[in-house]
Amino acid sequence: MKTLTALATLAALGLAGTAGAEIRIGATVSETGPAAFLGDPEAKTLKMMVEKLNAAGGINGEQIALTLYDDGGDPNKARTFATRLVEDDEVVAIIGGTTTGASMSIIPVAEDAEIPFISLAGAIEIIDPVKEWVFKTPHTDRMACQKIFEDMQAQGISKIGMISGTDGFGASMRAQCLEVVGDYGIEVLADESYGPTDADMTPQLTNIKNTAGVQAVLNPGFGQGPSVVTRNFRQLAIDLPLYQSHGVASKGFIDLAGPEAAEGVRLPGTALLVGDLLADDDPQKPVVTAYVEEYQAAYGEAPSTFGGYAHDAFAILVDALTRAGSAEPEAIRDAIEQTAGLAGTTGVVTMTPEDHLGFDLSAFRMLEIKDGAWTLVQ
Questions:
Q1: Contacts with 319 (C-beta within 8 Å, 6 or more apart), sequence order
Q2: Overall fold of domain 141-269
Q3: What ranges do the domains of the chain cover?
Q4: Lowest CB count within 10 Å: 35, 57, 246, 314, which one?
């Protein structure tokens, strides 16, 4: 079993010597703007890992030259920066697309230029259908729906209300949930929505509260919206289980919603959020532990799930570059597709020509917030 920690990767490569050349890689993430809570830890992670890799000698003596742009979560800017990375910066691979919208705008650029692109966004449409040059690290929104419905089914929940964000991620996850919900014998009795800038969801939640038969509420969404939903949910004293998506799987969500309001919320998340609760023989535990320690040492704060997505993307790329023995985009692409048994913060990755994500539903952990912290649902 391989691991994706920077330290383990460097040790495994036996890197040494002075760099005689450089390998140019590019990234465009939402370091600022409304998705900064996602993109900031992604940018920090990429900078940290590149610096560490280069300090140890790079890849086969070649240094990594990272060109990083801040698209602010704007899909048009993301497309512009992706084009610049290809045409002006002459990168051999791109990491980024913090949001679904940004990732979808980068895809045609990467496909046209035949440059490997590893997305950091959640929507299933990024890699389904499979695109020759496109990969991603987060679980898909469809998988999140399935994990949530599995848990609901186990709780005997068969009738739910939904309140979804109308942003790219929220709309995509809503569609995926509606597509698979019937497979679990669950019926959606209420289906509400809210906009990215809405600051009060009490009317929509009141409609759900007044819908007879609803046994739980699901909120597909990311950003600040789910925190508002959670606060309004408690203000209305809705005495039902509340489920959120992996799009808010960070301490920031708990802080924004407030620990009291967030108490009892369930959502699917990554091993990164509960590293100290993992079994000692869990293949992800050493990866998660090392990344958390390195990030905290570098930035004085704990990393988030989203930083973990960037961690895994960079490490997948380093592993592929090493195995390919070449910095040619086609060789890198082929090597990424042959990734096997690579344990990261998000899952154990095994790619195939038919699967550009590389793990299944078992990579998700069902989590519940208790006393302001994440706990594992057994």
A1: 2, 4, 9, 335, 339, 342
A2: Rossmann fold (3.40.50)
A3: 2-139+284-328, 141-269
A4: 57
